[in-house]
Amino acid sequence: MSAATTSPMIEQQDGRDPGPAPRAWTGPVAAGIALTITGAAGATALAVAYRQAEWGQDGAFTWFWAGMLVFSLPAAYWAVRRDSSARLRLAVLIGYACFTYLPKLLRNPAGPLYHDEYAHWGQSQDIVLDGVLFQQNPIIRVIGDYPGLHATVASLATLTGVTVWHAALFVLILAHVLLTLGVAVLAGQLWPDPRIAAAAAIVYSLNSSFLYFDTQFGYESLAIGVMVWALAAALGAVRSTGTRARAGWSAVMLLLTVAITATHHLTALWLTGMLGLVAIACTVLKAPARTAWVLTALAGVSVATWMAAVSPRTGSYLEPYLGRALGQFSGLAGGSSGSRTLFSQSVAPWWEQYAAFAAPGAALIATAGAAVLWWRRRSVTDPVTRACSGAMLLLGALYFPATLLILTPSGAEGARRSWAFSYLGIAVATAPLIIALLERSRRRISGSGALLLAACALVMVGNTAAGMNPSYRFPGPPVFGADTRAATPELLAASDWLRETHGRGARLVADRYSGLIFGSYGEQEPTTGSESFPTYDLYLAKPGRPMPPALLAQLRDWRFEYLVVDRRMAEQVPEIKIYFETNEPIPHDGRPGFTRAQLTKFDTLPWLIKVYDGPHIAIYRFDFDSLGQRIRMGAR
Fold first, then answer.
1. What is the CATH number of domain 483-626?
2. Which of 50, 96, 143, 378 has fewest C-beta within 10 Å?
3. Residues 6+ apart with CB under 8 A from 148
4. Where in the chain is the domain with CATH 3.40.50?
5. pTM of the entire structure?
6. Are 413 and 354 a contacting pair, CB within 8 Å?
7. What spatial distance separates the first Cα and last Cα of the chain, rounded to whole Å?
């Protein structure tokens, strides 16, 4: 039976009078005009917001959200509109994905800005220069073991002749579009209604990582889009009844899984966990589960093999974040000091802060409603859809305990990084509820529709505010202790001087922010300290007191050449409350963590020779042959 004969039957069963058919050109033309105008207005408002922030003027937050919402809300309307055609819906989602990349693109169009961007940009630059994969990265030690993003960007830059940064922008914009479309395809594997698929894509875009974190030059930005398509292929394999179709979907899923495994460790682990949830749900709810278990095993083997053979240090890299977070979280009940105050000294307006607290509540209400709808429809839904949508509900439920980890210093980072994954479950699970609410009214813009658009705006504002500090989102003057404001003219000049006079690849000790610049633009190999290599003890040592002998032996044995000292550490408190690394043993009580004497004592140590001196930055060369000589009483 053709589609032309089945559609009237479906409309009669729904009990709705479809009314006169709209003219074919009305929807696309109206949508194109509306979204072009709102898109141009939104982009202009974003540019104004950044200019206001750059000059320290009021209104940056208002202009920003006016620009975002003036396009996003109409795009959401056209995406889930009943009369929108498949081509129009696809065009809207592509346009929406491109527009939501604008905040990050306008934030830093010319070069790296975020902490991780410096590491990935430098890693890609090294591949272009040296043609070697798996080089150890001086800023994030584990990313050299996952070269998928860097190899892609370096290859594109080499083939086209564009800069590494512009090659990265092309890859990341494409990945952002594919992520948005992938969520729609994933939802489409469960429900044939294209409106549900579009609603899932829109809801997922509200997560806190969508506008800034998963648009940065980072390996998750590429891997998470591939992960969504791998999960969609896995659901296609689970749903398939024919052997050839199942084998085809499984082959696509396995190929994408290998690509993810070579790109980002955390995304590969989440994919394996999601497949495991699907397998468990299929088993419990008596849906075909064999394929799901096989795919879970294949993903697990891929991840385990890579981590064992290529990157055995991944486990030690990830463990401290979760272990310390759980320890600090358990201490909250006892009133310990391992808690954080949300929005402490934040310049975000009150309405952004209130929205940040309200957004998880809105997500909880929507997830609870989705669970009720899933339960009511369980007897009329096919077993695979029932099981897989149940797995998405379980995945979405992980979002809520993770929000509590934001209250701990160590757990905050891990919590933020988990939201991009758990929100996928919320998006796919709540999309049918959204369409069900819209179906309750025949009007094109109903009370339910207006309420849903308002909730969409609230959650987008709140999640973005909770996910990124204002200094990450908005430009402004240099600020000590902010990754995005670390590239001061003085630091850039010092790093350029060291590279031009002493070459690249020198091992040096530095604080977090100096290390970002010296390790990327300066092309050196900085360390900022860790529990096993506490280089920050050099700075903490009191004047006249001996340095830890074991640390000096490590520095000598590992051939460190330079020490970078930023004297602002004795004058200012870092904006993000970190001097060297997350778990540093330095008091954070609102006062500078160092005294001037602690940072100028290096001038009198015989085994350090000052080779560069600026207003705030000093560079010393290690002279370990002079260890044991008397300390000079005067500075050189």
1. 3.40.50
2. 378
3. 219, 222, 223, 259, 260, 262, 263, 264
4. 483-626
5. 0.88
6. no
7. 92
